[in-house]
Inverse folding.
């Protein structure tokens, strides 16, 4: 968002957020029911349960990263290959369009039957859902590579594999980076959601347990942790992207300057 | 026209290839047929489903929930973004809250929301609205902030008020991007609907999926998955139709500019 780009402090946002927290706390005190814990109570739950929360978050993160790693090593090459070979993509792309509208969580019951409720089931749900953004962005990005670049590569005697690695990949990298970011954040979101349905451990299971035991403050603390981890992960990827693709951003800025 | 036909043919060939590969896998016996039913068994299960009124009731509920939630999220999201475009302080004040909410999976809200909202319509309305609202809002804020200063200045010098500029210059310019934001959000609405039905429901396609899985009726499960995919395509198609109806002028303009 525009206000995130500059590093000046967003006073309006800060004041409004604090006012919101204050209003919540006052409302909780006025109502004084166990179903609406105040900010202080949630903060205390966060501190009290920090060890459990940290352990569950690591489980969720591990699963999300395992799923994302599988997506990265399979879908990135597949996407580049399909983007470079329209003859095959013509038949495969309609299948992608056919499968994409299926809501990722709908395959949880199938994953449960075929793979049980353990890591394999959850990671396959993550892989299924996180594949699409990366695959589609990789296909589109590779297809948009300037044909002149490919011809230059061919005329200096590069093999098709070398063209894919040394021309297609760098040229498509900025859009692929977007796909990677979407895939990674989807991995975490879908991973946590599938932990809610296939409960065993992880943050999703922590949320379900808090509900069953009527520990609403703990549930809210869990949501705070999930949001914090997701935001941190996204910021880290954006930073990394900014550093790795500095050449691209620098080149895009030139004509405007 | 011929390009369209060519695309349809290759889509059908791709689909036939997939079904054939699936059936070959079943025939090869590599996966027990109990877990991977053949194409015919799934088609049969699908036909049996279609004959049951309770299936159509649940299917209708899921589509209605997703569509109603999407409309609610879109109108409130675009509405708030418009207010923010008129008074930028609103956008700045909401920014941290929006960033946090965008980071939360909608399904994570279900367990705690059940305490406050029960298991009925209010729960669905809240979760599906939540899944879409912040996405539409963030996209609309982005689109509205990209107004051409020249166009805004021109409108101002013609004597238009701030509201008129917003309605007649900035909103039309932002509409195409807002529309593609709504299209992306449609998938999120459907997913939130199915997730809520799975976690808290006793109706809808999501509930049927869970129930079918627990009773091990695998061919029916595959048929339901096909229905879920069709739902996603249907919702996507509906959004595209509405966009063509309301933003047809934009497509025409883009086509003229391309010539």
């Amino acid at each position: 968002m525009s206000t995130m780009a500059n590093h000046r402090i967003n006073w309006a946002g800060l004041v409004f957020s604090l006012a919101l927290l204050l209003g919540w706390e006052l409302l909780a005190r006025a109502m004084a029911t166990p179903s609406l814990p105040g900010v202080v109570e949630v903060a205390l739950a966060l501190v009290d349960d920090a060890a459990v929360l940290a352990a569950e978050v690591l489980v969720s993160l591990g699963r999300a990263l395992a799923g994302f790693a599988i997506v990265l090593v399979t879908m990135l090459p597949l996407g580049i290959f399909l983007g470079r070979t329209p003859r095959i993509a013509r038949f495969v792309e309609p299948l992608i369009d056919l499968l994409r509208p299926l809501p990722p969580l709908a395959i949880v019951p199938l994953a449960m039957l075929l793979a049980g409720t353990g890591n394999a089931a959850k990671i396959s749900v993550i892989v299924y859902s996180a594949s699409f953004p990366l695959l589609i962005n990789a296909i589109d990005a590779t297809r948009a590579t300037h044909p002149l670049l490919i011809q230059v590569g061919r005329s200096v005697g590069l093999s098709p594999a070398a063209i894919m690695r040394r021309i297609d990949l760098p040229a498509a990298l900025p859009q692929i980076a977007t796909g990677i970011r979407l895939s990674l954040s989807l991995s975490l979101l879908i991973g946590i959601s599938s932990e809610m349905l296939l409960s065993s451990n992880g943050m999703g299971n922590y949320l379900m347990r808090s509900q069953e035991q009527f520990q609403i403050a703990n549930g809210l603390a869990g949501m705070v942790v999930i949001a914090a981890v997701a935001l941190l992960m996204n910021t880290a990827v954006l930073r990394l992207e900014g550093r790795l693709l500095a050449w691209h951003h620098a080149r895009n800025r030139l004509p405007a300057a | 026209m011929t390009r369209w036909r060519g695309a349809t043919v290759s889509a059908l060939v791709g689909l036939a290839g997939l079904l054939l590969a699936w059936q070959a896998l079943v025939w090869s016996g590599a996966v027990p047929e109990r877990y991977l039913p053949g194409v015919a068994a799934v088609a049969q299960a699908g036909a049996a489903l279609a004959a049951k009124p309770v299936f159509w009731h649940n299917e209708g509920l899921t589509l209605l929930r997703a569509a109603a939630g999407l409309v609610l999220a879109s109108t409130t999201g675009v509405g708030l973004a418009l207010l923010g475009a008129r008074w930028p302080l609103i956008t700045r004040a909401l920014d941290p809250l929006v960033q946090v909410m965008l980071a939360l999976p909608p399904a994570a809200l279900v367990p705690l929301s059940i305490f406050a909202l029960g298991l009925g319509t209010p729960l669905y309305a809240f979760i599906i609205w939540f899944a879409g609202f912040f996405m539409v809002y963030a996209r609309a804020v982005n689109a509205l902030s990209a107004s051409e200063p020249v166009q805004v200045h021109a409108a101002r010098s013609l004597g238009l008020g701030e509201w008129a500029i917003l309605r007649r210059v900035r909103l039309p310019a932002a509409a195409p991007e807002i529309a593609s934001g709504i299209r992306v959000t449609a998938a999120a609405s459907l997913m939130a609907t199915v997730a809520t039905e799975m976690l808290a429901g006793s109706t809808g396609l999501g509930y049927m999926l869970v129930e079918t899985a627990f009773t091990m009726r695998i061919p029916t499960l595959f048929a339901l998955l096909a229905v879920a995919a069709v739902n996603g395509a249907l919702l996507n198609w509906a959004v595209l139709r509405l966009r063509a109806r309301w933003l047809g002028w934009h497509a025409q303009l883009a086509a003229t500019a391309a010539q």
Summary: Confidence is low (pLDDT under 50) at residues 1-5 of chain A. The two ends of chain A are 22 Å apart (CA to CA).
